[in-house]
Amino acid sequence: MIRCGCMPDSCRAQMSKCIRIVGILLLLWIFGCRSSAGAAVLGITEPFDPAVIQSGGTANSQVIHSVGEQPNVTVLSIPYLSFVELEQGGAAQLPAFERLKATGEWAAMNVRVPFKGLESVYATWGAGQMTDARGAQGWNAGERRNGQRGAAMLERFSGAQGEAGPTAAAAVLVPDMESIRAANAAGVYLPEPGLLGSTLQAQGIRIAVWSDLDLPGGGGEHYRRPAPLMVMNEHGLVEHGRVGERLFMERAGMPYGVQTRYDWLLAQWQKERGAAAAAGSLQVIELGDLYRLYEEKARYAPDAFVQTKRLVLEQLDLFLGELMRAMGEDSMRGVLWLVSPQVHTDAKQEKMLLTPAVRWLPNSSGSKWLTSETTRRLGVIAAVDLAPSLLREYGLSSPKEIIGRPVMAAPASSGSATLDALLVEVRNMSKIYALRPPMLYSLAGYEIGAMLLGLTFAWRRRLRSRGQLMLEQGAERSSVWWGFAVRGMLFSVLLLPALLLSMGWLVAWSVPWLVGYVLVGVLAGGAIVAYVTGGSASRLIAALGWIGGVVSALIIADGLTGAEAMKHSVLGYDVLIGARYYGIGNEFMGVLLGAAVLGLSAGLQARARRRPAAARAAHRLDNRIQRKSSEGHRF
Fold first, then answer.
1. In this predicted model, what pLDDT tens digit does every residue of 475-484 receive, in sequence order?
2. What's the Cα-to-Cα distance from 398 to each of 75, 156, 387, 529, 538, rounded to whole Å?
3. How many CB atoms lie within 10 A of CB 238?
4. In DSSP terms, which residues pair with 283 in a beta bridge?
5. 486 pairs with which residues across the strands?
6. Are 231 and 209 in contact (CB under 8 A)?
7. What is the pTM of this model?
């Protein structure tokens, strides 16, 4: 152990000064990382090439292809679509998805929000900020339930009643708009529900929505219409579109005995594009067949479920292909976004919680990855990024209430920006997410056990030194081995952060190999250091200095080269949780500070121990010189 009490006052002062210098340097490093230029230099974010920013836009605006014409943007939302369906071989025989794979701009979207339900995800997409919309849904303006009209309910709740009220020109509305506003006004995020719809409506953009998640079968609980929450305005209104039963028809072989009316939806979509003309439009189409299938999965035989899922995906692919074909033939500029607000249960079991998000243009060639300043990670975007990205499509800047950032398309860092490469990265992130809790809990238990054993061994040794504990000869030898084991465990605790960091470079390994690498590395490293140091105090201090220095150097070097190891380490930050996407996490920041102080303290103490030895050697040399001199004088 390092006993600070044996250090002279001058050495203590030097140590305090060095610790302050280290702290100042680390703070300067952190502040440098926070700036965009510093971040690019330090490697915590990938530098973006302006030549590949979407549609030729700049950081603040976007160039529209045709003067006087706004784009027609279509958002195709498929709840429960996941990367499991898109993995290699999963999209076989689906030509439209294959085309998207080859020419789309892909990303994995983090749709984790603090509030449950699809409604909260859609509301977050529309506000560009975390939004609580639990229990809300869209109604057709003239729809009645239990004797109540949706329009009358909204007017009653908002106080804007009368035939000339704000609901008069709306096709779809959200009666719970006031309760959504009240719930978020009392929260910590303070979003503006309906901000996307209001901003686009103020620019004359034509907005329409079709929501198709109803579960036929009786009772009011079968209504599922969350999509309007994305494009409603500040009053909870959407001018065009429809939700509910008219969007599907009876078909016995499909989930819940119904199927989406794809032909009718395509006709309505074409009609809205024609009505928008040069003003531009935003159309949100929500498809519910895959959602209904997984809601009914427990009733299916395994083989029947697989067959029905294949049929559902084929129907989705046919509709997607028709949309893409029509966009290619249309003279007006079209943009397609395909997103998913939530993954299904099978994907959750595999920890594939990130949802696919793809942006596609009719003239696209080659696949790219999307990213944003929110995540600064190629191939990863956040739910709050969708609203500013859609505003960017129309050349509009984001209101200050939106915390997300527009997405940008850039080649993958590996040089291969294919969907298959993104799937590998998604699998790696899911692997670390699944491995984090069991591994960290186990290692935390090991660290606690090692420290308790160390305290117990030190206490018994102190008793022996005072003569209060006597051991027999055999027990004495056993105590020596126990001392070696305890020292090895304590050293392994100090080496553990370096091994957890380095596992990020080995993320392509399988889980058993990763776990084995960490366990074997920890135990072997601790045993080697314990053997080398032995009972020598000077070797102990040197080992501590080297451990602190190496751990600090590894963390800093990784941060300066893009933090690739930290991003894939169980001790780093997690994309699936979304608390942090880049920089240095709290855990490794604590390790860096502790390791730097440990290395510095050990170095100062080693220096203090060398000074008396050097002084004694110099004194002996002076004495020898004086003796030689006196002998020569006598001669």
1. 555 666 777 8
2. 19, 32, 8, 56, 61
3. 29
4. 74, 208
5. none
6. yes
7. 0.82
